[in-house]
Amino acid sequence: MCFSAPMKSKMTPNGGWGWMVVLGAAITNMTNQSIFSQFGLIFGEKLTEMGCGTGGAALVININSMITNFSGLVTGPILKHYSARKVTLLGIFLTASGMVLSSVATNLIELIISYSVFTGLGLGLIMPATFVAVNEYFTSRKSQAVGLSMAGTGVGQMIMPQVVRFLLDEYGYRGTTLILGALCLNGLPGALLFHVRSLRIRHKLKAPFQPVKWHMIETNTIDEEKQPLLVKHIQIPQTTTRYGVVEEPGTSSNEDKGKTLLRKVIEFFNFELLKDWVFLHLINGLALVYTCTVAFNMIYPFFLQNSVGLSRGDTALCMSLLSGADIVARVTIPMITKHFRISNRMTFLLGTVCWAVCRSVLAEQHRFSIIILLSLLCGYIRAAAVVNQNLAITEYCKDESKIPSAIGLNMVAKGLLVLGVGQFFGERTPKNLGLSDRLLSRLG
């Protein structure tokens, strides 16, 4: 349902049940989205046993990212016809199924089918659905609400390294993936908090029944002879009107049908957004930063363990500190930007530049104490770039009805760039992990 600006401003609560939707999105992100960043810890030793190494890890995670993002082609139209709650529930079931199937994977192909396909498709449904659910309830507090909902991902990323390390030590790879699959299902209560807001608004817009009093007055004051505009007798011929396209005699409708079908496809996917060069430039920039983020999340644990020589416990500690700083940033940065009236696009730009510099410095370090400090700094700065990606799109896209499709097209751009660039970083051998991290730092 699309409202005009005054109506949307009046009906958008900016609070109330909207905060419960934020809580539901945070729970869903904490139990599902956070698992994606733990790929190196969960599957690192298993891939080594398979003889795949970082090249195999890059292949699995890049196919996962490709499917996650290419699902944006259908996610946008799906969200226009189905509620965010239904889409999120389906995504949670797919993510959990992928983790459970990964527990019995014995080779790279099976791992690609289970983790890359099932989990990738599930995450591709969850990401835009949770954002759209929160976006519907907020206008003036949108940055704060989105930051809090995505803080759930940060909480999960802070806790998950320690949880994964404990599970691997106690239950091994198979038990860990089974338990994580069950953990994904804990996002179901969060998704159930997503109310269908259009029905709530429709209920509020129903006016109470008001009895109407009718009054009839009989008068004889109208003189037909003195009223030339009155017609005594008029004959109205019977007509039949058919609404649709009127075909001219002798012309074929095949071309019109073809054009109509093409137009329906364009309108269904909102492909007319691709004619906007500013929008194209925006989604390409977002896709490049996303690709570097995925590569960093994949390489970072390998870099700490193989290049720096940290133990599994120290590696988990660094990842937890990075995620902890990320949580603090997702809560505080929206307050700072709102106070200084900094736009979401400018915040994203500043965060991206600072994060690239911080990663470049981190890639040159080998002292544990400095790595901890830089992990904290990287985590805080990363949030400015990650949180404002979808917000930058909504800030530019003024038509609320096109936001799901705009986010979906952005996801497709991410998938295309991951295919072209993401595999390059993963193909670096463990001896060149520092070089890979330095390259993606400059590129980001």
UniProtKB/TrEMBL annotation:
Signal peptide limits: none
Residues annotated as domain Major facilitator superfamily (MFS) profile: 1-444
Localisation per UniProt entry: Membrane
Keywords: Membrane, Transmembrane, Transmembrane helix
The keyword Transmembrane appears for this protein: yes
Family matches, as SUPFAM superfamilies: MFS general substrate transporter
Topological category with respect to the lipid bilayer: Multi-pass membrane protein
GO cellular component terms given for this protein: membrane
Transmembrane regions: 87-106, 112-134, 146-164, 176-196, 278-303
Molecular functions (GO terms): monocarboxylic acid transmembrane transporter activity
Entry protein name: Major facilitator superfamily (MFS) profile domain-containing protein
